[in-house]
Amino acid sequence: MTVKNEQEAEKSEEWEPKIIAFLCNWCSYAGADLAGVSRIQYPPNIRIVRVPCSGRVNPYFIVKSLTDGWDGVVVSGCHPGDCHYLTGNLVARRRFAILKELLEFFGIEPGRVNFMWASAAEGERFAVLIRKATKIVKELGPNKKFEKKW
Amino acid sequence: MEKVGAVMVVGAGIGGSQASLDLADSGYKVYLIESTTSIGGVMAQLDKTFPTNDCAMCIVSPKLVETGRHQNIDLSINCKIQEVSGEAGNFTVKVLKKSLFINQDKCTGCGVCGKECPVEAIDIFNEGLAKYAATSVRYPQAVPLVYAINKDYCIGCGICAGVCKAKAVEYDLEDEEVDLNVGAIILSPGFDEYVPPKANLYGYGKYKNVVTSIEFERILSASGPYAGRVLRPSDGDVPEKVAFLQCIGSRDFSGSGNPYCSSVCCMYTAKEAVIAHEHMHQIKPTIFSMDVRAYGKDFDKYIIRAQEEYGVQYIRSRISSIQEVPETNDLRIRYETEDGKVKEEIFQMVVLAVGFNPPNDAKYLAEKFGIELNEYNFAKTDIFNPVQTSKPGIFACGAFSSPKDIPDTVTQASAAAGCVNQLLYDEKGTLITEKSLPPEIFVNGQPPRIGVFICHCGINIGGFVDVPEVTRYAKTLPNVVLSDRNLYTCSADTQTIIKNMVKEYHLNRVIVASCTPRTHEPLFQETIREAGLNRYLFQMANIRDQCSWVHMNEPEAATEKAKDLVRMAVNKARKIQPIDRIKLSVTPKALVVGGGISGMAAALNFASQEYETYLVEKQDKLGGFANNIYHTLEGGDVQAFITDLIKKIESHEFIHVYKEAEIENIDGYIGNFKTSIIYGKNKEKAEFEHGVVIVATGAKEYQPNEYLYGQNDLVILQSELEKILNTSDDIKKKKSIVMIQCVGSRNDEHPYCSKMCCAEAIKNALLAKEKNPDVEITVLFRDIRTYGFKEKYYRKAREAGVIFIQYDENDPPKINVEDSELRVEVKTARHDTINIKSDWLVLSAGIYAIREENEDLAKMLKVPLNDDNFFLEAHVKLRPVDFATEGVFVAGIAHCPKTIEDSIAQANAAVSRACTILSKEEIEAEGKTAQIDMSRCIGCGMCIENCAYNAIELIDDRRFGRVAYINQALCKGCGACSGNCRCAAIDILGFTGEQIFSMITGRVS
After folding, report:
1. What ipTM, to 2 d.p.?
2. CATH code at B695?
3. Same domain (yes/no): B234, B342
């Protein structure tokens, strides 16, 4: 996408953000499947990457997603206490608490990177969270902070 | 007589397939005999299943494919049983294999013959709604996929033989007769649906727009006659108002139908109404029913959703006749409303919810196998073991013994396999062959050659995503040498296509873009392994559950998303490498948690197969809640049964019983668990190792706060009444008893049906009437749920003079105490409020599970609980006793409220599933574990802190010094260590950093 195109796209209301979602295999990915099985509709902006556990998500994955031009990032795991791997999501929670501050320090708007919990039985909740995340990122506009300028 | 390590399974529906898989996986040779030309039975005909609305074909297809290709299952189609001789342990069965006139070994299922056949014949699978040729398969995803010629329609023109490239058509192929020697027999012929007779009140067969529920199921199906659109047969219009009539041919004492309840119609009707509305929003369904019998796990919630979210209207009325409006072919229905008024309404289409008949050949089978049938011509089974027929060594499962739904059928199928295990365990492994796989093709260092298979999934994906466009797009991606699309990628024929393509195009990576890897990845992995590729050279793009189904109104965006997902999968596939699975040893011992009826039945089954079993009970005596039950509704003596069971358990050399026990800790994984408990009065400690766990912890009887329970001595629970009736003559002094149903069930706090309270109330009412015919008994109910053959007792109770009055859940009965007398005030629909003087008020208290009690065990075993605090199985339809965590199973009321017979069946089923593990010396573990690059590790130890499984330790390596080391058997591959590694020294096989980065960069710009 050229710079000119992007500016046009930004101005028009047609602009749709692209959001990458790292979902843990046992809860959130299954929750996303349940949303499908229940035919609960949500915006088509997210692209799901399956990971074994939210604890697998290295902070660098998130940074890489932002530098690579994704407009938003979602990381979703099991509810605290429900982790299939006992404590993986707690490890993730600690890690992301720090990362969040770091990203804000870089100037990444809060809301562009979302951490959330959705269980395998929460298809509806998953859809609601994705709708919300999509809305926030859409309001923030395209992610240009890490755009290469040269 | 010498025992034989082989089993015959008769009938290859979902029940027969499940029993065959369990047995074949436990080391028995299985002969699966099917009378039609393909397996799958009724479930393969269904569009969706309740209560999850899962696509039936999608969930059953992997199981059928697995059955069809299991090396220990010998599948024969188009067969007839000729003769049976022998006894338990050694039967000989003469089977007639009828000719298909097409050679099964040569036929590829290409379908050219069917296309060219000039004679149009009716196909059975679509219930007569679509036309097919005389040469046909039953449905496009059939297992096995071979065509058959229907000689009744064939005119012998010879065109098919001419066009067949495989030279498979052989008109003179003759029937074949074989003698099979087996140790046990499982009968699972299923049922036949009730067909309304020619001169019926509903105009079925006369009015075109009156269809049966199974015909309507085909109309709903994507692979059905109208490709998933709901159209009425007379003119192809979309019907706006559709009426569903319940109890057609069920609960019918007039003589034209069956007197019993068919158990499943209430639920499938709700499902068909919901799906019809979902397919076409203009459809407004109305359901006419007597009682709504939503007694299973999460069924009530489904009915509520149908009403609230899909606008399904319920009218409590039984329709006696239908009239057609001649000009429009609409249908006029007259019905009586609850307050007694007569109304008339016009509907565009009527669906008759037909019940279950015993299979048409039930009598033939019973005679051949020498088993007894019951009064309704279903198989007669043992009062406590619902899979044991009247003849030892012959078992029955599924709808052959009583009408039942899919999970109950699957449970019984496993239960039958569990009972076979008990009989033949010492012949295990004598007649089986090991699966021979081709050596793995060496792909390391070679450039990726990727094959992409994109699934239409009927219209599930194809209806919303432009599949041809995605296929074209995939072809343009780097390293993709083949891009293909299929109607159903999971079907047996597509597996052959994939294998052929791997060979033809020298593929070394395969991608399937279809549904979710959570259900279908193992199937495709097995396919590519058979083609010689390592299982892990496979990727899936989820373009259905996470794309087409959630973006149904945005086909373009959905197509874009599907392209992105495929591209991301291709990017990842370019980076994937083969992974070797590690082998784990198995400790052939079992732990059973809970010493109630389910736990004891499971322990006894394990022990009789000579597996050492640890039975852990919280109370100081075995028996659990069954200690309070005297009889079942059908008359089984529960006390005698459990006394005998406890005696057997306590004296069994292979069972170790621990009472007053508490589990301290459960460690380990499938095949290798380690448990420590504290037991007995002196708080002794015990530790043991075992390979599997069965959770049979049961639940509690609700202790009501409502209706003055605990405040007035005249208010008692059903279980208390049962005790009084069975141990004293107090009932003789009573004049009037009132029972209230659904106390602590089907409310906001416990939004489910406790299943047995209706039967319990009727059982006690009948016994009370027997002991004191003058006592007046009034049952206040919301719906009477005497499903299946229990209906007989409901009728008996009414004949005995028990009065049944329906109350409104929003206006429950009120209790007044006047001069120490109870007066029950209840508002009825037709009459005004009535006031009943009552000597006893008996509350039918429901069953509930306590989160605090189940939570600890659930956490230790890493298994989930549902919203109602019952244990949540791996899949509600097809894996009713398994947990998602391998090696752990559930049985009895811990799973959801159920009867004693069902609990015992589930216990045997859990044992059967567990035996698929215990019967092996070693099992293969998942290969996606953490790997460490020692050259990068600085030995900081951060990973050790993050590892929840203690799989990592620091070692001193000869070359790299102090570094982390990962125990592969303990590692679960969660990646918590890797996400934290500051040196990027740890990677998770299957989810490496490199692979995930490649997906991140896979965005289509």
Report:
1. 0.92
2. 3.50.50.60
3. yes
